[in-house]
Amino acid sequence: KCEFVVITQSKHHDSIFLSRVSHHVARHSPVSTIILRKQEQAPDTVVVGLDGSTNCLQNILKVLAGLALDKTKTALHLTYVVNVSKLIASVTPFAFVSAMQENMMMEGEIYLADAQKQLSELGYKNINLHLKAGRPDKEIISLQEEEDASIIVISAQGGGAIKHFLMGHICERVISQAEVTTIVARA
Question: Is 81:134 a contact under the CB 8 Å cutoff?
């Protein structure tokens, strides 16, 4: 009946075994998983990867409440990454792919604005929005590095079977590549 499973890793490259354990636990745990890595200070900058689903945002809100962050000082960097599969792009006319990506970007803007509104209503003051295109795992890690964030929070589940499958791979990649504490949020 715990709220979090916590795994510690001194360096994410040190042990393939430990990395695989982290992936397995994060993927199969019924509760949120925190992969702790070296952290010298209290978190003042957090990157939050959003996928557009209701489950994702609810999971993230629950985890942020559990972290008891300073709502006025902590900078939250919400990111939504649009990714059109290379396979789909290679077999679909360019104009259609371009229109699809544009629609996904508009959906991302709406989703980010809604997430910002909900977090503002909970008292968070320093919320930054990042709408990006590319591979979600690479963009999330890149944003963490740019903002020198001490924590990454991502959801374990997408909005449907395909998104859930893809989000699982994104979680695994972020867990294995991030050099900071990573939280995989679950309801």
Answer: yes
Strand partners, 76: 46, 127
As a whole number of angstroms, the distance between CA 155 and CA 114 comes to 17
pLDDT band (50, 70, 90) for residue 7:
confident
- Express the helix, strand and coil content of the chain in percent, nearest 5 each: 50, 20, 30
User: Which are the contacts of 6, defined by CB distance < 8 A and separation ≥ 6?
Assistant: 33, 34, 36
**Rg of the chain (C-alpha set):** 16
More confident call, 67 vs 168: 67
- Give the 3-state secondary structure of residue 43: coil
Instruction: Kindly state the tokens that stand for 57.
Output: 């945002």
CA distances from 75 to 7, 24, 145, 169 (A): 25, 30, 14, 27
Closest CA to 37 of 179, 183, 172, 137: 179
Judged against a pLDDT cut of 60, whether residue 18 lies above it is answered with no
- For the whole model, what pTM was predicted? 0.84
Q: Please tell me the predicted confidence (pLDDT) of residue 176.
A: 83
- Other C-beta atoms closer than 10 Å to the C-beta of 43 total 17
Q: How far apart are CA 99 and CA 31, in angstroms?
A: 38
